[in-house]
Structure formats: structure tokens, C-alpha cells
Give the backbone structure.
Amino acid sequence: MVQQNRMPRKKGFAERYGKWLPLYVMFIPGAIYLFINNYIPMAGLIIAFKRVNFSIGILNSPWAGLSNFKYLFATNDAWLITRNTLLYNLAFMVCNTIFGVLFAIFICDSAGKRVKKLYQSIILFPFLMSMVIVGYIVFALFSMQYGIVNKSILPALGKSPVYWYNEAQHWPAILTFVNTWKVVGYGCLIYISSINGIDTELYEAAALDGANKWQQIRHVTLPALVPPIITLTLLAVGRIFYSDFGLFYQATRNSGMLYSTTNVIDTYVYRGLVTQGNISMSSAAGFYQSIVGFTLVLSANLVVRKVSRENALF
Amino acid sequence: MNRQPLTYKIIIHVVMMLVVAAIILPFLLLFLSSITEEATLLTYGYSFFPRKVSLESYSYIFRSSDKILGAYGMTIAITVVGTLLNITLSTLMAYPLSQRNLPFGKIMTFYVFFTMLFSGGLVPSYIMWTRYLGVKDTFWGLILPSYLVSAMNVLMIRTYFRNSIPEALYEAARIDGAGQFRVFRSIGLPLGKPILVTMGTFAALTYWNDWMNGLYYIAKRTDLYGIQSVLNKMVTDLQFLTSGTMSGYASAELARVPSTGVQMAIAFVAILPILVMFPFLQKYYQKGIALGAVKG
Amino acid sequence: MRKLLSVLLLCCLMTSILGMPIVSAEEPYHITMAYVGNEQPDMDKVVVAINELTLAELNMTFDVIQLGWGEYAQRQQLMLTGNDDLDIFSVFFQHAIGYINNGYLVNEADYIYEYGKGIIDFMGEDVATGGAVNGFIYGTPANKESASLSGIVMRKDVVDKYDIDVTSIQTYEDLTPVFEKIHAGEPNMILLAGTNLVNQVESWDLLFDGFGVLSDGGQSTTVVNRYETDEYVRRVSLIREWYEAGYIMLDAATTTESSSNLVKAGNTFAYLSPIKPGFLIQEEKVTGYELVTAYIENANYLYSSSVNFFNWAIAANSKDPAKAMQFLNFAYTNSDFMNLINWGIEGEHYVFVDESKTIIDFPEGVDAMSARYNLNIGWQLPNQFIAHVWNGNPPDIWAQYQAFNDSATKSKAFGFIYDSSSVMDELVALNNVADQYLNALATGSVDPVTVLPQLNAALYAAGLQKVIDEKQAQLDAWLATR
């Protein structure tokens, strides 16, 4: 009796999961890697809640409650750095999406294989440069003493030189441009691969229906790009409290006079802790950035799920 | 798709020409600055038309480090091995997540995604990789930590597998009695080529550009340094020494500090091989894309 | 004889490695030392030579880890948290408090009196044990020229051309007419380079971080806000005048070009620098110009922060701190070790140029660029005063250094290092404020009339008063024990 009862259930289990087994097997190597590389070290997050003393070990160190977080909020700059971080990240998301999609469509529609190839590789070039180097280039352009803009361009236009590195108001535009310049290729290439995946028959059908180019883009191309756009945006939302340290530190040459528009959470923490070497306080900052991103991305994912279940991440 | 209105064609070309210019000109400026004679640079400023050309910066780099050539070799080895492993693991991981009906699929996706949000920080990772896995001062120290599987790549590949390959194709293959592996090999892999090539490119760029693993996991075996590690070390040393922190003590060190022109040359040395290899890589790259675009 | 002994000991080591333990000989202790400096191609060779020495003298084996300038802070922290093999390493003074609080270091007070007698004898107890916070000796200072007398370094050809009377330059104000005169003739020349225009002349005891300082080179014991002192206001106002007159490079606040490189390029006249014995010879080599110097403000003081600039600490990782201390003692007193680590192997990496075998130089056909080993960081290594003198320096340079140090007036707070752990949060905010304003003010890039009040308001908002009060309380307590 017992056996008869169990047999069908067992069979059901095998039937339900057995056919998926190969997929689970495929997943495992990467999962193990992530476990080793990411999950185990996450235990280190408790450092943020401890007053760490390595001579007695992390676990034996006294708890510090939330005191390691205090410095992030106690300062007058807390509002400023949060605002800067958020606004820049929003601007980056918008620019990267719009220009990424635009260039992807243009590249796919340009005539000639050679030209396509050329565009595709050139748009990746900025990826090859570290932010330090990008900082040099920005300096070559905007240096007040030696820069091309002040030495050649502005005089040619009959304008007087601008104190770029002394005046904060120019930098939101400069940094947004630099960031787009540097990373637009990433999204762009992903969009190109999605466009390449579109069945050409769809365009032919649309053309037969009398759709003009704009209508084809709107009704065939863009819908195919929605999934990668949503994925990329969700991923960006998760990191909305983080910033590219190199961009805000190197490209501005750490010029103090620009802080009102260039100080972000990452640079603030770095500048504050660089001499103190307090890893509890720096991991507290990381934890804070992560938890905000985590909350936001869960909510964003929920919204996506409501609108189009298909495109939600999970 | 090929017959397009003239105005549209013109817009495309004007815009793309601007984009190309915006990307190429800074590179050109970088290169020209690196071959401008130092005194000229510091007197007349940066220019697209240097008054006096000098290759001193380049000769400085090769004189000051006998490692550059070996480091190129290491970088290529790291990039090839790292990219192959990365793209293999990422693809294997992404494909199951793309299957709509996979039980626990959402949890598994979340498992991957979560690693993008939280990080234990450098110290725990360092302890993990050096004390327990012993990668310090080995080739694997440059490959394994941090970059082997990137959640970002996995999720982008998953999105493609799921949305750009019609569900019907998977179904058809299954009805033909193909097992999961077969479906993956006969449908997923060939049709997924565009994204695999793209993500492979990014993985390659990640390894090519990496200097952090070199910094953290290579202590004594500096012969294992890739080109970026060597150059990054030069640049960060330079920044530190000129920052004024050392006041007067390091004047002997400062004497060896290279100048702006050399820094520009360093940057160029780091990207030169990729610029040289690009046409060759392009060939394979294009092949991959073209294969992927063929649809059943 | 000693060579024979070391060979013998080496044989002992070999046999013990081969699994035939010698009963009488204790297992040699393995010392790992980390320094901050450049990589040396022949490091392995030198390490072998040092091993011969340490085995013979101490029954220890020796290994060294090189940390680059730009990376050392991060790598030190990783090595310390990761419990890597590490016994002794050099700690930058600003990291000391953090390292102590994180439990990275061994308190040398427990060992130095027993195993570090040589260090105390050589440097004097107050200097040798001065790297202490609340009685915790975190490290022993490198023996070097620590006084801070600074001045202006100028191109001699320009000075001659414009007939400048160098002896007339004694204060900041005296520089204005000099610059005026040259600017009239060389309108495009940068007359003063660098970002250190205020700080280089060290008229305050910064008490390590500059947030709350002692005026008059530490002759006052009242902690004050440096940025409200008359001296500071006077300097930044003057520098602003120079900036506006075009004497200072427009990008001065953000430049990464070293001042000597700028002079070398031919368009720069002068910069500020500490001026120490042997300085001019070295600087002329670097810039390629003949130079003249003049001290400014005659601020000749000795501060704890300059004596303890880089200190040799024992890592908590050390398996045997007593052995590590013994090794340190050896490093401070053994000239063979110092010569090997700083200059390499005689005959291969350097040769003697004089009869009495004190002055050394590169062998024939080798220069600084092609040298296989020339560490040349004597100011960071334990005790360069017992090592050879590099060619070009006066033969009695170590005596001159000693005299230079002795000529300086010690700050009243000499030997005092404050414990900042109770004001960590404030320091984060203060560091940001400092980064924001100080370089700009110190290069004249902004107008002090409007910016100085902003700076001070921001400092007080960030908690400066709390830090000042804390420092004052600790200083008073410390002074009371003297």
C-alpha cells in the first residue's frame, strides 16, 4: 500500500523536474562560481556593523550598531552628494538608452557592410580607455592654461577663456557627455544584436502594408528593443547609488572648486576615509548604497511585472 | 530594409560621421600629445598641430620597463583564457534562465541578479581567494576573481535567448523529441550568436582592461602582470608622487616621474595592440553576427 | 671568517631543508619585510645576499615585498587583513591611528626595551619611542633629515638676467617685487609652480591632520584653527595677488606635472621646496638648470609628523614579534644590511669612487635609468646614517643631516600624537572640506576674501571645534605627564 502510494508521486516528481535536469546541470558551474566569488564574501557585510579589530578577528570584534553609518548622514553634504549621485545616474540612464538605441538603429540601417563594421567597432573604442586616460583627454581639452578650448577654440570665436576647473556649473554637461561618450557603445552593441535578431520578414510585411520608415521603426524595431532596454534599466536602477569613481574623481582632476556639482557618494567616502583606513565605515557606505539599490530595483521590477509580466527580471 | 528614403540616409550619415569624429578626434589628440615635444606642450599647450614632434616619451617607456613586451603576451593569454571561460559559463547559466517554464527559474534569476547588488567588499574576497583558494601569485589569480561570471552578461544573454528567439522554435525542436541539451545546441547556440559575440567582446574588453586582479592578487610574481597592470602602476605611482603628499622626501623618486607626454604615451601603448588587432577580430566578429541573423 | 660562517650556516639550512634536522641549530625564523618604492629587477639577487648576512648574524631568513607608491595603502591593508606573511613594514603617519584601531599592529613598547636597544642608543629614546599614541608605540622612525626648513628654488640664469638680489629674499612678501620684475620681461613664463605654496613653509605644527594646529612652529600650546590665523590669511591673500597677476599657472590647483619637470621644460622660473644638505646638486641634475635657493620665513622646526613620516612597524600578522623586533634592531645597526637593501651588491650595482670607501656611484656604463638595482629610499629605510654616501653628496652628509636636525627648534608637542578615534565621523567631513577648498586657496585660484569665510564656516559645520577641543584636551593631558 505504502509503496503504491509513493510510486505515482515519485513518478510525478521525476516527470515534473526530470526533463529540466539538464538545464539545472548547465546552471550549476556558474552558480558555484557566484557562490564562491560573491555569496561567501557577502558574510563580510557584518564588518559594517562591527568595530573591527583584526587582532581578535572579525567575529570577536564588538558590535557597533549603526554607528558606522552615522557619518554618511551627519554631514551637511549628505543631501548634496545624494542629489548629485541620483541626478547623474538618471541623466546617464536616459542618455545611454536614447543614444544607444538611436545609434543602433542608424548603424543597422547604414548601407554597406564595411561601413557598418566600421561604425560598430569605432563606437566601442572609448571602452578601451581607462578613466585616468579619459581624464587626460578632458584636461587636454579644458585645461585653463594649455587646453585646446581655451587656447584655440574660444579665441577663434572671439570669446574670452573660461575657468573650467574653477567653475562648477559647466560640469554636469561635461560629465554627462563624457559618460555617454565612454559607455554608449555597450548598450548600442546589445541593441544591435537584438535588431539583428529581428526576422526581416516583419519589415517586408510592414513595408507591404505601406508603413514608412518611421512607422517601421516604431512598430517593428522598437518593440524588439523593449526587453533589453528594460533589463539594462533595471540593472542600472540597482546601482543607482553607486557612481563611476574614475569619472567623478579623475575626469574632474579632483578639483575642489567643482564639488558642488561633482561630489557623489563614492568620492565623498573615498576622500573622507582615504587616510583613515577604516574598513568598517567604508563597508557601511557600500551596504547603504546596496540596500537602497536593492529596494529600488525590487519596486521597479514589481512595476514592470504589473505592466508586462514577460519583461520582468524575476 | 535596404530601400530607404534619401533624407533618412542623409541623416544617418551626418549623425554617424559626427559620432565617429567625436570618438576619433580625442584619440588623435591623445596620440599627438604623446609625440609632442615636452617643452612645446608646456609652452604652447595641447594642439592638433604640434609644433615639434618627439618620440622621447615612447623611448622612455620602453627604457624604463623591460616588461612591456612580456606584459603584452600575458594580457593576450589572460584575455583569451578569461573570455573563453567567461562566455562558456555565462551562456550555460543564461540559457536555463531563459526558459519560461523552468521551475524555480525566477529564484535562479534572482540568485544571479542579487550578486550585482550586494558585495562583501574587497577584504572578504581577498581572504577567500588568497587564503582558501590560493590563487595569489598565480596565473589563475588574474582570471578567476571577480570576472569569470558577470551577472550582467548572464542576464543580457538570458534576455536575448528569451525574447529574440521565437518560442515556437524551441517548441518545434522539443516536439521533434530533442532533449534539452540538443535544443540548446541546435537552436539556442546558433541563433544566440549575435549576443554571444557581443557579450564575448565585453568579456574580452573586461579582461583586456583589467588591472585590479593584478594589483590585488599578484604580489611578487610581477612577471605575470598584464600590460594594464604595468601601466596602471606607472600612472598611479605618478599621481601619488605629484600629489604633494610626500613633501620633500621623495625628491629622488620624483626625479624619475615621467611627464604628461609620457602619460599620454602610456595610454596609447595600452590600446595599440587592440587597434592593430581590430581588423582581424572584426572578421570573426562579423561572421558571428551574420550567422546569427540567418533565421529559419 | 664571517663568510666561512655564513657558508657553514647556509649548509646547515640546506641540510635541514633536505630533511636532516641539525639538533643544535634552531630553525631559522623567516622575516618578511615590505617597503614602499620602486621595483628592482635584481631584487632576487640582493635578497640572496641579504639572506647570507641575516642567517649568519641572526639565524633568520629574509624576504622582501615591494609596494608601489600609488598602491601601497591598499595593498598594506589587504596584507594586514588577509593575514599574509608579514613582519615589518613602513607605516605612513596618517595611517597610524587607523592601523592601531583596526588591530593591525603590534605594540612595540612590549619589545623595544628588550630587543631594540640598538635603535634607542642610536636615535635617542625620545625619537625612537616617539611614534606612540596613548603609550602604544606603533613604529620606530626612519633615521633621516627631518627638519622642515624650506625656501624657494630659482633658475640661476633668470636670476642673473634680471639682476635679482637673492639675499634680499626672506619672506613671502619679498617675492612680489622679484616676480614683478621678471614678469615684465617674460610675460609668458610661469614664475611659481606647485600646489604647496602655503604648506611647504611649515610654520604650524599641524598635529598630523591640520584640523587644529599650534602656531609659531608649535611654540604655542593652544590649539587653534589654522585657517583663521593671520599667517594663513596673509599667505593666501598674497598668493591670490600673484595668481591674478599671472605669475602662477592657471591650472595650478589640479596639475599633475611635478615642479621640477615644469622647470626642466624651460618655461618655469621657481618653486618651493624643503632645502636640505645635498639638495641643490640633486635638483640641478633633475632640472638640467643651474639653480639658486633662498630660505623663506626661516621656519626651522621639528615636528612629530615629520620625524614619524614613515615608521617601521611590526604587523600583527608576525608569528614572532620578538624576532621581528630583533630584526628591526639589526636593520638599524648593521651597515652591511643597509647598504645591500638601499644600494645593492658592491661591484655589481655600485662601486666606490674614493679611497676611503665611503662614496659610491654606479659602475661604468650604468645610469639611474638602466640600473638593475638602486632602491635609493634611504629616507624611508631604517637607518641610512650608517650606509655609504652616493656620489655628488658631501662625504659628511650624515653629520650634516644630524646638524640640520639639531639646528631646528622642537615643537612643544614634539612626541605627541593624538588619538582621533573619537572624532572619526568629523574627520570624514573635514577631509572633504579640506579637499574642496585648500588646493584652490593655496594656489590663488579663488579669492580668499569670499572663499575663506566659506571654508571656515564649512569646517565648523563639519565639527572642527570638536576636533580642536579633543586635541587640546589630549595635548594638555600629555603635557602634564612630561
In short: Residues 89 and 223 of chain A are 25 Å apart (CA to CA). The radius of gyration of chain A is 26 Å.
